[in-house]
Amino acid sequence: MLQPQQLRVLVAVRDHGSLTRAAQTLGYGVPTIAHHLASLERHFKVQLVERDRRGARLTALGAVLVGEAEEILARLDQAERLVTTQRDLGLTTIRVGTFASIGSQLLPRGIRQLRSLMRVQVEVVEAEPTDVVEQLQAGELHAGLMYDSAEEPAFATPDLTLTVLLEEPYRVLVADNGHYAGQAELDLADLADADWIGSRDEDETSDRVLRRACRHAGFDPHILMRTDDLNMIHGLVAEGLGCALATQAAVDTRFAVVTRPTVQGLGLRRTSFVRKSSAVSQAVDELHRILVSLLPRTPN
Questions:
Q1: Is the pTM of this model over 0.85?
Q2: Does domain 91-164+271-294 have CATH number 3.40.190.10?
Q3: Range 127-132 contact pairs with CB under 8 angstroms and sequence separation of 24 or more
């Protein structure tokens, strides 16, 4: 296994041109420098350093390795500084995934309250629900906000714990100066020829809800464009280029759009706080408590 000391030795040999000067710089003895170089060469099964009376220099392959070694050592140094600084300041860092709309409204309030209670650094990662779940399971996130359909739960797995924060009825997002905005309630059958804005992932909750509802109404929705950019969705709808599924809380009032319910009913979008079922940090527990307090918990 490669050791950081071995890579530092290789960099020092390149910079100083001899084992003796590399040893002086690093505070090692020459035999230690020679030992680390020999270990590296055994690991790669190739000569990395050439030595003669004039000193030492890297071979072509040694030069390739030292370029990568510098990046590795820089990352290690950065990680050490980060951990040491946070240790000295008493900081905890957690990474939280969230989706746009309600996530952007709710999570900042939760973070503000959390930081008033404890020394914590919160890194926010914007991601769709499927990505939040994948990153949680991979250990890349500590917690997340995600949504799914209350009628078709998509992420109930033993390794995740979900707390429902909010349930809202799905509605159709339309241009506020268009034909559909003048109706108090829409019949999906009347939207058979309409264009729709879909999610990038066809398996995301909103797309599954849309397909199910439209097929019950006797047609397949025509997808004009796929995007998860909330501004783009609002912009396209405001220009009358298509419709989209949304909830009232997700509406950006800067755009000329409105939502309308449908005769058929589209079900409920469920927003949940999700974390690993295994032990989590105090900061994650506290953020969970705060978010639950910010919104009345939906009864099961």
A1: no
A2: yes
A3: 127/97, 127/98, 127/99, 128/99, 128/199, 128/200, 128/201, 128/204, 128/228, 129/99, 129/154, 129/155, 129/204, 129/205, 130/201, 130/203, 130/204, 131/97, 132/97, 132/98, 132/99, 132/274
